[in-house]
Specification:
Layout: H1 5-11, E1 35-40, H2 53-62, E2 65-71, H3 75-87, E3 91-95, H4 101-109, H5 111-124, E4 130-139, H6 145-165, E5 169-174, H7 177-186, E6 192-194, H8 201-209, E7 213-216, H9 226-233, E8 240-242, H10 264-275, H11 279-294
Parallel strand pairs: 1-2, 2-3, 3-4, 4-5, 5-6, 6-7, 7-8
Helix pairs in contact: 3-5, 4-5, 4-6, 5-6, 8-9, 9-10, 10-11
């Protein structure tokens, strides 16, 4: 298990309420079609609650979620993602140094330590079960001026790795939309996924214009997230994924409870409504897009 759960939870607090419910929500109604959870963290506990990989996969499959992208945030969790993807055919891995981890490494241990960590990610990126490089990116909400040069350096290196192995780069972008686009454009990023999309309709159109992909999490179900629902309205079916970012960002009406891949149907319902399609259409689109980007989950 990841020993940095408290630190990581602090990084991931977008949309998390102060009152935590200490049990997983009930299973939603099963989807008529299947799809993929494009981003989750099976190795991170929700404080005192954790779901095993076996249980997470079984519950997910019971509602039509047949694959999961397990995402690394540092060297240790990236190695765990690779190991777990080799053990479970329903899981593919993504590996990276999180944008808030990069400056911590550089400032506490020296820039050479950051270089060494990125070099380890570059080696992991060559594994067949690794299907994306992420999550990497820029986060100006938690990283101050003193750490941003290291964050940008790390992001650029990750994009270069992604391009070199011809795999998507999975972008964490918080309060840094313009800089994320600037760096991606500078590095001529090829396949790009904006994980847990947090922009508005205008920013969504910029991403679509580049033929990149927006991945929506349970945040699009939150009452205060009209910007995300506006973004869904202008996003083509060919440019959309669905994710949990579990154990975080549980969709309504269970916000505050621990999240897991089996909660995807609740997010898809909102996505279908805002994109003016039926549930089967958005389910099929997110599955087909996930397979196109990450390969098969079998």
């Amino acid at each position: 298990m990841n020993n940095k759960k408290e630190e990581l939870r602090a990084r991931k607090d977008f949309g998390v309420t102060n009152t935590k419910k200490r049990e997983y929500p009930p299973l939603p109604e099963k989807l008529n079609q299947t799809t993929i959870d494009a981003h989750c963290h099976l190795d991170i506990e929700d404080n005192d609650i954790w779901i095993s990989v076996e249980d997470a996969l079984a519950k997910a499959a019971s509602v039509g979620i047949t694959g999961i992208v397990q995402v690394g945030v540092d060297v240790a969790s990236s190695k765990w993602a690779v190991k777990t993807a080799k053990e479970f055919k329903q899981i593919n891995a993504a590996v990276a140094i999180h944008p808030n981890e990069a400056p911590v490494i550089a400032l506490e241990k020296g820039e050479s330590a950051l270089d060494e960590a990125i070099a380890e990610i570059a080696l992991l990126a060559q594994e067949e079960v690794v299907r994306a490089i992420g999550e990497t990116g820029v986060d100006f909400f938690r990283t101050g001026d003193e750490g941003r040069e290291f964050q940008e350096k790390s992001f650029r290196k990750h994009i270069q790795i992604a391009n070199s192995v011809n795999k998507p780069v999975m972008v964490h972008d918080r309060d840094a939309h313009e800089d994320a686009l600037r760096i991606l454009d500078d590095e001529k990023a090829n396949m790009v996924i904006f994980h847990c999309f947090s922009g508005d309709a205008e920013f969504a159109q910029e991403i679509v214009k580049r033929n990149w992909v927006l991945s929506f999490a349970g945040t699009c179900t939150f009452k205060n997230a009209q910007n995300l629902r506006d973004a869904l309205k202008v996003t083509p079916l060919t440019n959309v994924l669905v994710e949990t970012d579990s154990p975080f960002l549980t969709p309504m009406p269970f916000r505050g409870s621990p999240n897991a891949s089996y909660m995807i149907p609740l997010t898809l319902e909102v996505m279908a409504k805002e994109m003016n399609v039926d549930l089967e259409t958005i389910t099929n689109a997110t599955r087909e897009n996930a397979i196109r980007l990450f390969g098969k989950f079998e």
